[in-house]
Write a structure and sequence with these properties.
By secondary structure, this protein is mainly β. The chain has a single domain, classed as Kelch-type beta propeller (Neuraminidase). The strands form six sheets. Strands 24-3-2-1-25 form a five-stranded mixed β-sheet, with no helix packed on it. It is globular and about 55 Å long.
Length: about 325
């Protein structure tokens, strides 16, 4: 069986329009960093990226995960104290909780409510709600993407006990590759499928269109009001940095004349609200780089990433930390 999280490389090949070498740079970067961005890769390695230098260094490793694992980037969530990740170990999902202060890990094999049925129910999205201090998740009933029978379930997870509660909401979507939470509305996107809007308070869902069209977005994150920023896959190929307005379900592409690439098409985005910057790990001119788009000034910068070891294709920026 080919599971959806094991074919990301195939989908990435479809959308990837640049190539890059992951060899470490021989240059010595003397730029001083004010802080670092925190990123997680598919093997559970947590790394820091210097905000000015772009230098990648090890922060920690989530215990119990290694290079033999492949974590779906959209099942990574965090708050100021913990990082939550899901690893699918057939036939079950295991939730790992990394304590950012002690750098220790606890884990639990998840038991889904009996109402969640399917060939092999698998979590495809994990989201932290800071206002309610709770985790939301989307579970797909059948991770075999070749199947024509897909049903997703919306659940809530207690971050302390890791117990799952299901209130009966399900909807048609093949899986969830990227999500963003805007107030009490959770938006879920999947390649070549409908975008779903979930009302987490009223436990309802509906299909939504943006600019009266069906779009596929990734690296999505809310900013303020009803605005969200993301990467949108264009129908003619390539990706665009895009602003979504969830009030009138419209979007506008930003930096239309720039060409960027990404390898892993899943996961949520990150905005540094202290600098009003949308920050994303990308590829430009065949090099790994850090894109920083200033929402207030509508300007952007890119800085080349460097590392003393090969750079991972699947880094996902989740937060920032002091050096």
């Amino acid at each position: 069986m080919k599971f959806f999280f094991k074919i990301l490389a195939l989908y990435s090949a479809i959308f990837f329009f640049s190539c890059a070498s992951d060899s470490p740079s021989p240059e010595v970067n003397q730029v001083k960093d004010d802080f670092s961005y925190l990123a997680v890769n598919a093997a559970g390695k947590i790394e820091k990226i210097g905000n000015n230098s772009g230098k990648i260094s090890l922060f920690a490793q989530i215990e119990g995960l290694n290079q033999d694992n492949f974590i779906g980037s959209n099942t990574i969530a965090c708050n100021s104290e913990k990082i939550f990740v899901i690893n699918h170990i057939p036939p079950a999902d295991k939730l790992y909780v990394f304590d950012r202060n002690t750098k220790t890990t606890t884990s639990k094999v998840l038991v889904y409510p009996k109402e969640i049925i399917g060939e092999e129910p698998s979590m495809t999205s994990l989201v932290w709600d800071e206002s309610k201090k709770i985790l939301y998740a989307i579970i797909v009933n059948n991770p075999n993407i070749a199947s024509t029978n897909h049903l997703c379930y919306f659940v809530k997870i207690n971050p302390t006990t890791l117990e799952i509660s299901y209130a009966g909401l399900n909807f048609n979507q093949k899986a969830s590759y990227s999500t963003f939470l805007n107030g009490n509305k959770l938006y879920s996107s999947y390649y070549n499928d409908n975008t779903i809007e979930i009302d987490v308070d009223n436990n309802t869902s509906k299909t939504v269109l943006f600019n009266n069209s069906n779009i596929f977005f990734t690296r999505a994150v809310s900013y303020s009001g009803n605005a969200a920023y993301c990467l949108r896959y264009k129908s003619g190929g390539g990706i665009a940095l895009t602003k979504i307005n969830s009030t009138d379900n419209s979007y506008e592409d930003l930096l239309p004349n720039e060409s960027f690439g990404i390898i892993n098409q899943t996961g949520k985005g990150f905005i540094d609200k202290s600098t009003n910057e949308y920050v994303c790990y990308m590829i430009k001119n065949s090099e790994y780089c850090l894109l920083k788009y200033n929402i207030a000034t509508k300007t952007y910068t890119t800085s080349k990433l460097t590392s003393n070891s090969p750079i991972d294709n699947n880094l996902l920026i989740i937060d920032k930390v002091d050096n």
